[in-house]
Amino acid sequence: MTLATEKAPARTEEAGSSEAVKHRDPVRFVVLAALLVLLLLLVGPMLAVAVNAFKSPADYAANGPLSLPADLYWDGIVDFWNRVNFGRKLWNSFITALAVSVFGVVLSILNAYALGIGRVKGRVWFLVFFLVANLLPQEVLVYPLYFIAKEAGLYDSLIAIVVIFTVIQSAFGTYLLTSVYAEFPRELLDAAAVDGAGKWRTLWRVVVPVSGPTLAVLFTFFFIWTWNEFFLPLIFLVSNDNQTVPVALGVLQGDRMMDATTTSASALIGILPAILFFLIFQRTLTRGIAAGAIK
Amino acid sequence: MAGSVTKNRGYAVYLIPGVLASLGVIVVPLVMTVYYSFTKWTGVGDPRWAGLENYRRLVEDTLFWQSFGNIALLVIAMAVVPTLLGLVLAAVLFDYVAKHFGDRWAGLFRSGYYLPQVLPVAVTGIVWTWILHPGYGALNQILDTVGLEGLAKNWLGDEDYALYSVMAVMIWFQLGYPIVMFMSGLSRIDPSLYEAADLDGATWWQRFRKITVHMIRPEFYVVLVTTTIAALKIFAQVFVLTKGGPANSTMVPSYFAYENYFEKARVGYGSAISTVLTVLIVILAFLFLRLQHRSEELR
Description:
The structure holds two protein chains of two kinds.
Chain A: H1 13-22, H2 26-52, H3 57-63, H4 75-83, H5 86-117, H6 123-135, H7 139-151, H8 158-181, H9 186-194, H10 199-210, H11 212-228, H12 231-236, H13 245-251, H14 260-288
Chain B: H1 16-36, E1 39-40, E2 48-49, H2 53-60, H3 62-100, H4 103-118, H5 121-131, H6 138-145, H7 162-174, H8 176-186, H9 191-199, H10 204-215, H11 217-233, H12 236-241, H13 253-263, H14 267-298
Helix pairs in contact in B: 1-14, 3-4, 3-7, 3-8, 3-11, 4-8, 8-11, 11-14, 13-14
């Protein structure tokens, strides 16, 4: 489970083109067509949403879901945005995901430093614990957390969500990062020690910078996972002002105001931030998905 | 500043924040839930000890068995089908598309197939409720347009079809993950293996079976275990698509537990369901790990 194994596939261009000549037969176009149909099936729902979000209800009623919008109708999106105060939900999601990613990465670093580099006693058991913590369904934690949060006055507060997800995500982060740190070059640690750096300085000046790429992958995962979380935010964030994007959209399902075009409009503005992150983080993501395998 | 790096003392302090946080957020709640599962409690006042009563009722509860039966079908939709289909697709993309059309095409397909995985589950659920809506939904309207209106159904509202509709949505959602995983596994394989197979006159299918499948066994196990566990945990999609209905035909354990906790105020019963689910997941995970370990030893 190391990140360093990611290498570009070494394939020679010549071999490819000579085979391409050999195989210039209908088969390749059948394969390509099949893959394109599948792509359309997988991406189609999002395209349909994008098309229908810009239709007026009358346009949808008259021309159905497959036609292009008669003209660009922004009112559905604007109305929905204002009605649910969507800017607020975006901010809640963003600040929660950001805080969890930062704290989660820091906590993972501290744990992995002790387990992977420090090899503290009983580290195998700690790792088993973090692995199991990573597998637990949230249903088995939710009621006591809900109860404790209520007692502590943290119910319906983003703070509770940040604390809980920091710990949950860092269970995964610790597990992953420990295996990376276990292979950390000892020479670097020894050199730092010779220079008189203590453990704290060595951690922040040597270990963290060297493992930067892995930490970036962790950060990306934590951000997107937290952004997409639904179950615990659904239970903890009950008031309109505190809801995150998935919760705000999820609880509106079946609401009277949600007709076809409003649903599309709401789905579109729910999807766009995620697609934006996907584009921003794409390189880190494809590099890191193999590492995220255990999740 | 204490100690030299070669000695491993003095690192334990770095575990303190993590251990304390894990105690508060994971260990204590876990123990409390297990305790609740032996009590009768509405969430107000004090839990009353009930022994194994909740578990006895669980065994007799047909809804409980049905929710686990539904999960078995969802494992097919979320783990088995995407893994097998993803294996073939990854091999085709890596070995055929990348060679005949270029790496950019392979990368394009991979990103496109992976897209459903990065979107918030609750939001994709909304997309599908609209597409599958009996009245204004896109699917029925498309069937209508092409003259197949006889096939139009109340996809999520008819108890004969709801679970299959959810399964189809889950395949859609899950397929990209194995493809990306397997493609990254395939990039590890030494190209000379394929060249040797080509020289021996192996067909594409033979190479797929003998080299591809064999070489990416580690990824295969990881994908199978992670997707199976994801299927056991499924909540958001069910919440948004069907809320376990109609007539409990899409009930799953996590939603069943949620309903008992927060709608029926039967915290003890909900805890028992969650505990059973957790035990099942942990056992499965360790079985898979053993299996994976053994298969690696055999190689």
